[in-house]
Amino acid sequence: MTKDMTNGQPMKLILGFSVPLLFGFLFQQFYSLVDTLIVGRYLGVDTLAAVGATGSVNFLVIGFCMGICTGFSIPVSHKFGAGDYAGMRKYVANAMWLSIAFAAVMTAATVTFCRQILTAMRTPENIIDNSHGYIVVIFAGIPVVFLYNILSGIIRALGDSRTPVIFLVCSSVLNVGLDLLFIVGFQSGVAGAAWATVISQAVSGVLCLLYIIRKFEILHITGEEWKVNGHMMASLCNMGISMGLQYSITAIGSVILQSAVNTLGSNAVAAVTAAGKIGGFLACPFDAMGATMATYGGQNVGAGRLERIWLGMRSCILLGAGYSVIAFFGAFFWGESLASLFVSEGALQIIGDVRMYLVINTLFYFALALVNIIRFMIQGIGFPRFAILAGVFEMLARGLVGFVLVPIFGFRAACLGSPIAWIFADAFLIPAFLHVYRKLQEQLKQQEGAAIPAAGKKLTRHMAG
Q: Quick one: pLDDT at residue 112?
């Protein structure tokens, strides 16, 4: 069930790998929307606000966990691309030990200080109890977040993007069903919504584990391969923590910008919320492209096939450019119709603001395409710290917009928050990629007289160190 991305036409491989991911991201967005509707309809506005108030800290913590798992899968893709299956299994084993440790520490810390975190965020008194009841269960479920994301990341690293999506769809359907069971049937309130999320993710993690045991014989780890390896753990932490910080830094910038939007009044908040839901759907192809580039880059650098990295980048950028045009015209002509799905047709001001937000953002979607494609490629080929710096540039840009531009120019400035962040990130990422690519070329040239695959293996070991 593995897929070798080191041979074959890059465009065909990229499309074949990214399309299943795209459906998974789209379904995840759809599930999120349905989950929100269930909570709002059956538990009321205050409860919905209580769940919404946890959104930024949820993204901050859970995003960090997901980033760690994604980073852990990169050395696995390197070893798979190099054909070093024994080394690959050792990396998987050490990733498992690290995941257990990270999950234990993060669960204990977040559950213990959960209320203090909500208080520091100035959560309103009338909803803080419900907010705590929801997020403490989510944080208690951090181990299953690690379970699903580390296993699905390993499956993708071996070239299978379809199976994790199938399990994600199953998990999302189960989540909606459990929401209805706990909230409507058992009357368990906001905690029931949280338990529905945790249980459904646990099921998807177990399904990934069973699938690996049954279908991936090359991942069957022997006794010796389970041994802790300090060198490998250091490499995994370098990749994982770097990517986790990237997610968290991006979340901080979003929190700053959201805080600025809050000062513009409820209509502006409603418009940004609705536009964010729509934008989440529209940006799914870029998420799929980024995840594809991480695996594609990791396998090809492991095999020492640097020329294919350029070919893959070019193919994916062409896809990103084409989709950016489609998204812009969709927002321009149907933006108001899309907004009407989320707010009453009588709210003309909000509908107009949603359309403006979408048109401005999609106008700069090519910049977003470059951010995802280049950043994940840099991560995939083994230089995750550059991705952190790109996240810092995004955070600074959103902070600039939130602290300086929004107070002066109002909602229009808020619409430019993400586009300016993407441009700032690209200004760093493009020269950064050229730098790391030249560095890889120099390292490969030092392997005089060695065959390219062998050089790729040595290069992977070098980067892992």
A: 93
